[in-house]
Structures are given as structure tokens and as C-alpha cells.
Amino acid sequence: MSREKVLVTGGAGFIGGNFVQYMVDRYPNYEIVNLDLLTYAGDLTKHKGIEAKENYRFVQMDIADQPAIHALFEAEKFKYVVHFAAESHVDRSITDPGIFVRTNVMGTQVLLEASKACGITKFLHVSTDEVYGELDFDPTVFFTEETPIQPNSPYSASKASSDLLVRAYHETYGFPMNITRCSNNYGPYHFPEKLIPLTISKVLNNQKVPVYGDGKNIRDWLHVWDHCAAIDLVLHEGVSGEVYNVGGHNERTNLEVVKTIIAALGKSEDLIEYVTDRLGHDKRYAIDPSKLEQLGWKPTYTFETGIAQTIEWYVDHSDWWESILSGEYRK
Question: Which parts of the sequence belong to the NAD(P)-binding domain (predicted)?
Fold first, then answer.
């Protein structure tokens, strides 16, 4: 049977990987093409359950490789592009900003040009609330789609730049697009350099858990499966040219998150180790997702149900994250 093709860039990463599985299972009439360069955070072992399915295919490619990307688009005739591929770790962006500019800015521009040339139906650019900068601790103030962009790290600056490129293609060329900006994701297959999987793995191994500064920085936590459903809705129902914020209504300090995990695993808070704060560490992120909720989406996970599910998943899948920590997954 002939299937319409959906290109998912960065589908070997955390959010993109969960989205690939979601789409393969939910839309048998789509062919889901997973494009990923397989850098250090790319892992295909998560797709063992779908790699034999007729509506799934993997392509290893660099989104900044203009000739290869254009050849792929000309050959495949994609209907939709969902663009996750990005360098995303703030600490790494502080030590090596250049790779973030190359992948997140130049790579996005290559994809936009190829998509425009091939006349795709929709380009959905997956971004982050970090492009808005930081909020103070006033619990009544939230990021909205109208909040000015004020990124504070090389990572968020590179994402903001790519957001503006996507917007410019819409304004200049009438290019069909949406941008989604999400709060902090968590859930299965989260690379263990990030706060929640790092904490779970260290607690399970009875190792010290590093907490930046005083641990009072606040993030709004969104379960990755809720995020996948939001992207699906925006892809099919979002008004072209619009930005949609995706938030979980789950604000917690970093210290609260760490203590919740330690308590759930029955360990001592003596494992907490306060370390020198991150450079330019934003105080608080919090999203108002009411625009997306009016489109028909609401998160299904509270932080309590989501973190319990996530901890259980990591306990049951220690072979996965242990292979990441050991480097076995790269072999």
C-alpha cells in the first residue's frame, strides 16, 4: 500500500524517539522515516520493537549536509516534517557553542530550504521554553506565546535562532509551519545526563546526586507521552504560522525533584551533593499552555503519576541506561 511519508528528525533521541514510536503505532497509514545522525545521545536500541514494522524506516544523515538532505527530500516526497534534531544539553553548549550553531541553526535552515523546495504540507519545529529566558519566582507569571524571546545560554540562543528562521520562512514565503515550545520533558529513554534519569541512575547505584547551587531553580515538568500527543494535535490541527506552548502544570524545584526520587527509591537524602551552580542558570520556567488546551489538548500525567511511572520504567530497564553509561550502546 502507498503511505504518506512523515519525516521525523532526531528520532533516535529522547523526545523524538518517543514520538517515532507513538506515530508508528498510532498511524499505520503513515510511513514514519526516522532521520538521525546518531551522535552521542542518539540510540536506536529503543526502537527494537518497531524496526521490523512496515511503516517505519531509519535513515542516518546529518541535517546540516545540504546536498544529502535535498536529495532525500526530492526522492521521498514527504508530506510532513517534524523537526526534533538538535544539540540540547545546556552544559555542553557552554563549553562548545559552535556545534549548537551548526546543528540547531544551520541544520534547521537546510531542512527549511529542502521542505520549501518540495512543497511539504506542514513543517513542525519542536522548540523549548528556554528561548523565553527566565521568570522570577512569582507563581502568577507564566510564559505565553507572546513572551519576548530572551535566551540566556548558547543552547537556548541557538534554538531561538532556529525558531526565528522558521517564522521568517512563513512570513516571507508563506511556508506552512508551526512551532511548539515545551517545558522540561521526562519519561522513558531519557538520556542519563539530564536531571531525572541522572538522579534515578545515581540513587539506584548509591552514588552522590549533584544538585546545582541551592537547588531552588524551578522547572515545569511535562511527561514525554503527553508531549507526543500535543505535537500530533498541532501537526494535524494547528493553524499554520502559529506557536503553541506545551506545559505540564507541574512546577517543582530541582531539589524537590531529587528528593521525590530518593524517597520513592527508599534511599537517604545524604546522597545529595550540592555543587557549584551552572553559569547563567535560569531561575524558573513555567508555561501557560491555554492556547494549546483550546485546540483540544490537556496533559494526562500529574507529576506524581508521571514520576512514579518513570522511576518504575528505569528500575525495569536498567539494562538500557547501564549500556548508555558504559558506552556499550555505541558498539
Answer: 7-310
Q: Is 129 a catalytic residue?
A: yes
Q: Which of 43, 130, 220, 288 is catalytic?
A: 130
Secondary structure (DSSP) of 232-296 = HHHHHHPPTT-EEEE--S-EEEHHHHHHHHHHHTT--GGGEEEEPPPTT--SB--B--HHHHHHT
Please pick, among 155, 169, 189, 285, the residue that the annotation labels catalytic: 155
321 φ, ψ to 5°? -75, -25
- Report CA 44 to chain centroid distance, whole Å: 16
Residue 127 CA to residue 48 CA, distance in Å, equals 27
Asked about 134 being catalytic, the answer comes back as: no
Round to whole Å and give the CA distance between 216 and 255: 6
What phi and psi, each to the nearest 5 degrees, are found at residue 284? -150, 140
Mean pLDDT per segment of 10 residues, for the chain of length 331 residues? Answer: 92 96 97 93 87 96 97 97 85 78 95 98 97 93 96 93 98 98 95 90 94 93 97 98 95 96 96 88 91 97 96 94 76 57
pTM of the predicted model as reported, rounded to 2 decimal places: 0.93
Q: Which of 31, 43, 129, 288 is catalytic?
A: 129
CA-nearest of 129, 104, 249 to 181 is 129
The pLDDT value given to residue 89: 62
Question: Is 130 designated active site?
Answer: yes
Q: How far apart are the C-alpha atoms of 94 and 134, rounded to whole Å?
A: 17
Q: How many CB atoms lie within 10 A of CB 182?
A: 25
> Can you list the domains of the chain with their CATH numbers?
4-191+222-249+284-303 (3.40.50.720)
Determine which helix (DSSP H) or strand (DSSP E) holds 127, and give its type and residue range: strand 122-128
DSSP state of 45: G
**Type of residue at 88:** S
